[in-house]
Design a protein that fits this description.
It contains one helix and 13 strands, in the order αβββββββββββββ. The protein is mainly β and 181 residues long. It has a five-stranded antiparallel β-sheet, with no helix packed on it. Strands 9, 10, 11, 12 and 13 form a five-stranded antiparallel β-sheet that branches. The chain has a three-stranded antiparallel β-sheet with strand order 5-7-8, with no helix packed on it. A hairpin with a 2-residue loop joins strand 2 and strand 3 (55-64).
Length: 181
């Protein structure tokens, strides 16, 4: 009878520990196998992902070419908001995360308050059906000599006439702006 009670208690403890652990497939310690990875700039290291609220605390400890260490971390919720990345990362200093489905997270890493946007709309130009796609990218900079916050980047507009498959583009055009108020 004592063995049955001990076995029941052990099963209950193991079950409780298993339930307490996250069932999210992103959680865990991931080891880089550089031999099986294509296009990586790292030769080895680990990434550790832990639950943090509805999101994750991620710690990265990698080794670059020539043995250079690269360590950084961040804590982010899958809400699309920007979160700081601390440490030495070659990729950026801000990260946002959204959940696509139970097994997929979309992360966007930005450097120095950069941004991108793309819009697409259908319409009629000179009687022809067309799709107009506009793209803008840039980054916010600190105050200029006059104390105004500035931004700069490129924009591009592409038009595809859907009935004739003709195309035209503005190509990438530089822009700058300064806050006046």
């Amino acid at each position: 009878m004592k063995r049955l009670i001990v076995a029941t208690v052990l099963v209950a403890i193991v079950g409780a520990v298993a339930l307490a652990q996250s069932s999210d497939p992103q959680v865990g310690t991931w080891k880089l196998n550089a031999g099986k990875s294509k296009g990586t700039m790292f030769t080895g290291g680990t990434v550790t992902v832990e639950p943090a609220g509805q999101g994750f605390k991620t710690s990265v400890d990698l080794v670059g070419q020539g043995g250079t260490p690269s360590k950084w971390s961040f804590t982010a919720q899958p809400d699309g908001k920007d979160n700081p990345i601390t440490g030495e990362t070659p990729f950026g200093n801000t990260l946002s995360m959204t959940r696509v489905d139970a097994r997929t997270l979309k992360t966007t890493i930005k450097q120095d308050r950069s941004f991108t946007a793309k819009t697409s709309q259908s319409g009629v130009i000179s009687g022809d059906n067309a799709t107009i796609t506009s793209f803008v990218a840039g980054y916010f900079q600190g105050p200029n000599a006059a104390g105004a916050t500035t931004a700069s980047g490129v924009f591009r507009t592409d038009i595809v006439f859907t009935d004739t498959n003709r195309k035209c583009t503005s190509n990438d055009q530089p822009w700058t702006a300064a806050r006046t108020g």
